[in-house]
Amino acid sequence: MMILDNYSYHRPHSVEEALNLLKEEGSLIIAGGSDVMPQLKMATIAPKMLIDLADVSELHQVSEDEAGIHIGAMATLSSLSKNELILSRVPAVSEAARNVASPQIRNRGTIAGNVLQARRCFYYNQTKEWRRGIPQCFKVGGKQCLQIPNSPVCRAIYYSDMTPVLLAYGAQAVLTGENAEQTVSCWNLMMQHCKDQDEKVLVREFLIPRENYTNAWAEFKKYSLRGGIDFPMINFAGVYQPNRVSLMVGAIATHVLELSEAESYLLSKGRDFSVDEACETAVAEMKKKSQIIRESGISVPVKRGSFSFVRELLEDLKAELH
């Protein structure tokens, strides 16, 4: 499939050089390209300039200090799946990275690119020629959602595998923009992105605070039609500490959902929690908060049925506590 739009291509060698280019009208950052390039081919985006961050070496680094673990925005998913520091300190991050798409995509895809991937739905994720036969939706400049016609906002699903685990660890994102550098919660970064309200900033790194992974049990689970390449049908990330429980679920709404009622139950019961009760609480909460739409190859009943897959994570936690 050909890319029909014209754009200039730039490959800066520093953050400062990238930021200067980002000031230009119509500029767009490209990381690994596994999300941007298909969008260019589908003509769902039409930037005037692509800024490739591959040569900005500082954005590839992974390190640990007193504050916690720093993961450069351009760290590839393949490298994170094998990184010894990540495997030993925050293994759920490695597990999530290892479950994204295919080996070829993981070799190119980056952690920031996965977090900032476009939300998708059956009607949006099609070629320009295919979309000519239907009204324009919110995502391509229209004024309606084709999935839910009476919805005032786009209801495309957010399929990131890395975001649930970053949120479970309480990660922060370090951003650099025209004005200054700032640190925001990954939750705020995700919510702004999922409302299609991205600012012109560059993500430098993700920071997982040391206190959020010290003495912690953590796990990531993904379920998809084809384990080797598909977006998740549903995914879960959980982090358990004696005084903190975090349980996130992705791919069932326009953004990752926090299962706060299930978290409260687990925190109140401690090691004595019942898997059946915890699963019932989590599934009921997902039914209330989910925003299921039509997906290719997955019916709505099957999607709802996948909520019960949280049991596997809860059983693993119960075994760990005993």
Outline the structure in words.
The chain is an alpha+beta fold and 322 residues long. The chain folds into three domains: 1-55, 2-Layer Sandwich (Uridine Diphospho-n-acetylenolpyruvylglucosamine Reductase, domain 2), CATH 3.30.43; 56-210, 2-Layer Sandwich (Uridine Diphospho-n-acetylenolpyruvylglucosamine Reductase, domain 3); 212-321, 2-Layer Sandwich (Enolase-like, domain 1). It is built from 14 helices and twelve strands. The chain has helices spanning 15-22, 36-42, 77-82, 84-89, 91-98, 103-108, 111-115, 128-131, 162-168, 186-194, 260-269, 275-289, 300-305, 310-321; strands at 8-10, 27-30, 49-52, 62-64, 68-72, 172-177, 181-185, 201-209, 217-223, 234-241, 244-250, 257-258. The strands form three sheets. Strands 4-5-8-6-7 form a five-stranded antiparallel β-sheet. A hairpin with a 2-residue loop joins strand 10 (234-241) and strand 11 (244-250). Helix 11 (260-269) packs antiparallel against helix 12 and helix 12 (275-289) runs antiparallel to helix 14. The mean pLDDT is 95.
